[in-house]
Amino acid sequence: MNLKQIAAERAAEYIQDGMKVGLGTGSTAYYAICKLGERVRDGLQIQAVATSEASDKLAREWGIPIIPFDQIGRLDITIDGADEVDPNFNLIKGGGGALLREKIVAANSDQLIIVADGSKAVDKLGRFPLPVEVVPFASEWTFKALESMGCFPEWRMNGDERYLTDNGNLIADCRMEAIEQAPELNIKLNMLPGVVDNGLFINMANIVILAKEDGSIDELHRSN
Ligand SMILES: O=C(CO)[C@H](O)[C@H](O)COP(=O)(O)O
C-alpha cells in the first residue's frame, strides 16, 4: 500500500452511517473516496458533496450519493489532502486547482481531516507555490497587484493555455519560498479585488493524518 492510501483509509474509518461527508480532491483524497465507495457498496449510508468535478465523477462511479452543496446542509466531516501542513495545522492547498470549493466545503464542515504522506509536513509554509484563484476580468491588473505585494506570481498553464478552474477562473501560483505570517497574508490576498480566494487554510484543519515512510501513521488532533 502506498502512503497516501494508508493515510486516506485511516481517515475513512471516521465516517459512520448517516453522516454528511465532504469529499476532497487530489491523489490522496482519491483513496478516501475509493474506500468510502467500497463501504457504500457494503451498505454504508452517507450523503456527500464533492470539491471538484473530478471527485464528483469518481464518487458517482462508486455509487456514493452526491447532493448539491446548497441542499446538503452542514457536513459532519470533510476528508481532503494538502500540499503543505505546518505545526499549527495551517495548510497550503490548491495544487490540484480546487482550492475554492475545498475551502467552502471545509468551512461548512464540523471537522476537516487532512490526509497526506509525511513529506507534506513542513516547519513553515511557502516552499510549495501558493495558489491564488483570480477572476479572468482584469487578470493582468490583479497579477500586477500580486507582484506589488511581493508574491512572485506565475500563471498556471495547461499546455499553451492558461489553466482554468472548475469555476472558470485562473490560478496564479505564488513562489514565495517562506510565508512569515500566513494568517495575515490570507486576509491581505483575499482583500485584493480580482482574487476569489487563495490556498491558505488557516485554523480549518481539525485532524491531520500523516503516513510515514515506515508505514506508521501520525494522527494529530488540534486542541483549540
Ligand atoms: O488541494 C488540493 C487540490 O486542490 C489537493 O488536496 C492537494 O493539492 C494535495 O494533492 P495530492 O493529494 O495529490 O498530493
From TrEMBL:
Q: Kindly tell me the pathway this chain contributes to.
A: Carbohydrate degradation; pentose phosphate pathway; D-ribose 5-phosphate from D-ribulose 5-phosphate (non-oxidative stage): step 1/1
Question: What does the entry list as the binding residues for substrate?
Answer: 25-28, 80-83, 93-96, 120
EC numbers on record: 5.3.1.6
Q: In Gene Ontology terms, what is a biological process of this protein?
A: D-ribose metabolic process
In terms of Pfam families, this protein maps to: Rib_5-P_isom_A
Query: InterPro entries annotated for this entry?
Result: NagB/RpiA_transferase-like, Ribose5P_isomerase_typA_subgr, Ribose5P_isomerase_type_A
Indicate whether rRNA-binding appears among the record's keywords: no
Q: Which GO molecular-function terms appear in the entry?
A: ribose-5-phosphate isomerase activity
- The yes or no answer to whether the keyword Isomerase is present is yes
**GO CC annotation, single:** cytosol
Can you tell me which residues form the catalytic site?
102 (proton acceptor)
Q: Which reaction does it catalyse?
A: aldehydo-D-ribose 5-phosphate = D-ribulose 5-phosphate
What's its job?
Answer: Catalyzes the reversible conversion of ribose-5-phosphate to ribulose 5-phosphate.
Q: Which proteins does it associate with, and in what oligomeric form?
A: Homodimer.
- NCBIfam families with a match to the protein in the record: PRK00702.1, rpiA
Q: What is this protein called?
A: Ribose-5-phosphate isomerase A
Task: Give the species.
Answer: Paenibacillus amylolyticus
